[in-house]
Amino acid sequence: MSVFQADILHGHVALITGGGTGICRGIAEAYLRHGACVTLVGRRPDVLQAAAAELSLSTGGQVLGVAADVRQPDAVADAVQQTLGRFGRLDTLVNGAAGNFLAPAVGLSANGLRTVLEIDLIGAFTACKAAFDALQAADDALVLNISATLHHHGTPLQLHASAAKAGLDALTRTLAVEWGPLGIRVNAIAPGPIGDTEGMRRLAPGDVGERMRAQIPLRRFGTVAEIADAAVFLRSRAAAYIHGAVLVVDGGQVIAPPSLF
Ligand code: COA
How far apart are CA 187 and CA 174, in angstroms? Predict the structure, then answer.
């Protein structure tokens, strides 16, 4: 049962990159359940179309799936146009498309670094540019970037993703200053470890996850639904004056020192 009014996003239209899986699929589901229409954008047509069909069925909402790689500006521009064609407007862009793997810096090629920067950072920039005209035309526009907390420390094996998410936070703040006067709010969510996601399965193998959990002040992983709640809140009028913020949703992980006792 949602803590939000059921129709809190009625009439909104959101385009969500990376919306076919994981955290961003959860955000899509929450937006649909609260009355928004949603375009899912992702690289894999089969995954995307399955997600669109399942979400449409489970929420009764209107979902459009557009297969596009955020590294292809024309494909992203086409996804925006398809959204406008289907739903007539675009109020919210969620930049969630991301790529990651574990690699020590000495084992990371320049192309490996570039690939993650191109997806996470330049992909978000590309989507922002593609959506700009539509967002500016909306009454109450929001760009919501999905960041991380990796770069708040020197996280080993994550140079590429840390650099990309640090850049995404910079993009969040700069666009907030440039686009705020145009009526576009720009914020980010920085999720901590979220259970039952591909990211946790791939990036915290073996007993790493358990050791991580023991260091989190709330002593548990977050849930996809908890990140989705934060995304609904930031989309809602309750967050009308929150702008340029990176909202950390991590059970306190990032502010906790290594536990000594
Ligand atoms: N360790 C080191 N380098 C790696 C790597 C790994 N595990 N995985 C990819 N790379 C490097 C490749 O070696 C390549 O560099 P090179 O040309 O110098 O060899 C570069 O990254 C591009 O790899 P490629 O597989 O051709 O790119 P891609 O566009 O097909 O996929 C990712 C890139 C990052 C998206 C891919 O790792 C992936 O599909 N990951 C799963 C999905 C995902 O990351 N989801 C997010 C979970 S948080």
Answer: 11
Name the pairing type of β-strands 37-42 and 246-249. unpaired
Three state DSSP letters for 174-217: HHHHHHHHHCEEEEEEEECCECCCHHHHHHCCCCHHHHHHHHCC
Domains and CATH numbers, the chain: 13-193+223-247 (3.40.50.720)
Q: Tell me how far CA of residue 53 lies from CA of 48, 49, 63, 107, in angstroms.
A: 9, 6, 8, 40
- What is the atom index within ligand 1 of the atom nearest the CA of 112? 21
Q: pLDDT tens digits for 209-240?
A: 999 999 999 999 999 999 999 999 999 999 99
Cα(115) to ligand 1 centroid in Å equals 7
**pTM attached to this predicted model:** 0.97
pLDDT of residue 205: 87
3-state DSSP call for residue 85?
helix
CA dihedral 31, 36, 42, 45 (to 10 degrees): 120
Q: Report residues whose beta carbon is within 6 angstroms of any ligand 1 atom.
A: 98-101, 103, 107-109, 111-112, 115-116, 198-199, 202
Q: Tell me how far apart the alpha carbons of residues 91 and 138 are, in angstroms, rounded to a whole number.
A: 6
Location of structure tokens 């007993």: 207
Handedness of CA 196, 201, 206, 209 (dihedral sign): negative
Q: Which amino acid is at 230?
A: A
Decide the pairing of beta strands 246-249 and 184-191. parallel
Taking CA atoms only, the protein residue closest to ligand 1 atom 4 is 112
